[in-house]
């Protein structure tokens, strides 16, 4: 087994799926605070507390780039091509073979695949710190993507790989780089990367620290063509965090006319909404849409004239006076449980029916959850 296979096996064995659900896919304000308080080690210690995952990713990579631009010639060259360079380029930049071995041994550099070096230190995350484990996973995958693009000229980072380097959340957890290349390049699994056959116009390609990557709008189309939940989770985040305009998505969809899965992509991306604040909210809206329910209003503020308090709710069917709250279970502990109880009592006094759903309610027990929602909507 080579180094890339060992790295992939190590990442796949990391036991943090429940943390991933509670802090990435179904986050709450409390969950975000807890994650910030329990970050250990210095890998992401310079990340600003309270940042969204998209902003945190961009912030961390920007700091690494700033540091490396004042480093060695090899590091300055690497930061212009996705933080990676070939061994030959490293030697050409004046770095000796012994220095390369020393940097790898110390963990200052890392080899994402044979013959390619990443000049970013990715320390082994403490398995007791799931946040660090998750961030290490994302960091290694981003570097594996840029390494794959460097090793395969004419290929562009795309799909889940593009979402990773853009910092967008996904419903699934990708484990390998994805690239896109037009013929005569061969599609399929090759050299630890999935290559999809397609062409990209020049304006559908941007760069991530010099590495070629599909634009956010093209990335969303590719995601939604292959996985509807990935597509909507990433689209909501891109609209909310990156200011992506619906017109940009419409243009990317128009260019993809006639491609396999593009009708599915058009349907799901039309649901994109910057008001959705978590992947759980995104996939719950998608499930409601698929069930034929009317679209709810998102992030609605409800004022209680008796107490003067204003509560914001995740989703509201105004005519039916039904509220849908989508939460991570870690939110309901200690004082937060009491606070939520008082909040729900205020909303009930105002005549609202509050339905709370958690991750398992939507992903694993949707039929029963749908019965609850339909019964509430039919009751008014």
Automatic annotation (TrEMBL):
Q: Which domain of life is it from?
A: Bacteria
Where does the DUF559 domain lie? 313-377
Q: Which InterPro entries match?
A: DUF559 (IPR007569), Restrct_endonuc-II-like (IPR011335)
Hydrolase in keyword set: yes
* Any GO molecular function: endonuclease activity
Keywords for this protein: Endonuclease, Hydrolase, Nuclease
Pfam families for the chain: DUF559
List the protein's name.
Answer: Endonuclease domain-containing protein
Biological source species: Jatrophihabitans cynanchi
Q: What is the lineage of its organism?
A: Bacteria, Bacillati, Actinomycetota, Actinomycetes, Jatrophihabitantales
């Amino acid at each position: 087994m080579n180094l890339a296979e060992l790295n992939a096996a190590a990442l796949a064995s990391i036991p943090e799926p429940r943390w991933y659900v509670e802090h990435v896919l179904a986050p709450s304000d409390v969950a975000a605070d807890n994650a910030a308080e329990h970050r250990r080690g210095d890998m992401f210690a310079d990340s600003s507390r309270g940042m969204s995952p998209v902003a945190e990713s961009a912030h961390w990579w920007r700091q690494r780039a700033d540091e490396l631009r004042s480093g060695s010639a090899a590091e300055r060259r690497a930061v212009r091509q996705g933080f990676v360079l070939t061994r030959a380029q490293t030697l050409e930049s004046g770095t000796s073979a012994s220095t390369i071995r020393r940097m790898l041994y110390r963990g200052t550099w890392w080899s994402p695949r044979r013959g390619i070096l990443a000049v970013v230190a990715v320390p082994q995350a403490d398995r007791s710190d799931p946040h660090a484990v998750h961030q290490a996973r994302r960091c290694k995958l981003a570097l594996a993507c840029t390494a794959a693009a460097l090793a395969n000229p004419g290929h562009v980072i795309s799909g889940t790989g593009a979402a990773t380097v853009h910092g967008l959340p996904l419903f699934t957890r990708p484990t390998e780089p994805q690239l896109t290349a037009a013929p005569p390049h061969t599609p399929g699994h090759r050299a630890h990367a999935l290559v999809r056959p397609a062409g990209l116009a020049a304006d559908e390609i941007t760069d991530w620290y010099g590495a070629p990557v599909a634009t956010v709008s093209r990335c969303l189309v590719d995601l939604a063509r292959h996985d509807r939940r990935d597509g909507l989770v990433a689209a909501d985040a891109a609209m909310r965090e990156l200011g992506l305009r619906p017109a940009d998505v419409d243009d990317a969809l128009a260019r993809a006319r006639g491609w396999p899965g593009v009708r599915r992509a058009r349907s799901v991306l039309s649901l994109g909404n910057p008001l959705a604040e978590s992947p759980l909210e995104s996939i719950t809206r998608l499930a409601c849409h698929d069930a034929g329910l009317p679209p709810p209003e998102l992030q609605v503020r409800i004022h209680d004239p008796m107490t003067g308090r204003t509560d914001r709710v995740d989703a509201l069917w105004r005519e039916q006076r039904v509220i849908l709250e989508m939460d991570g279970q870690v939110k309901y502990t200690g004082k937060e449980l009491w606070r939520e109880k008082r909040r729900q009592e205020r909303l009930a006094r105002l005549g609202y029916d509050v339905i709370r759903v958690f991750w398992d309610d939507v992903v694993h027990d949707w039929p029963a959850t749908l019965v609850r929602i339909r019964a509430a909507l039919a009751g008014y």
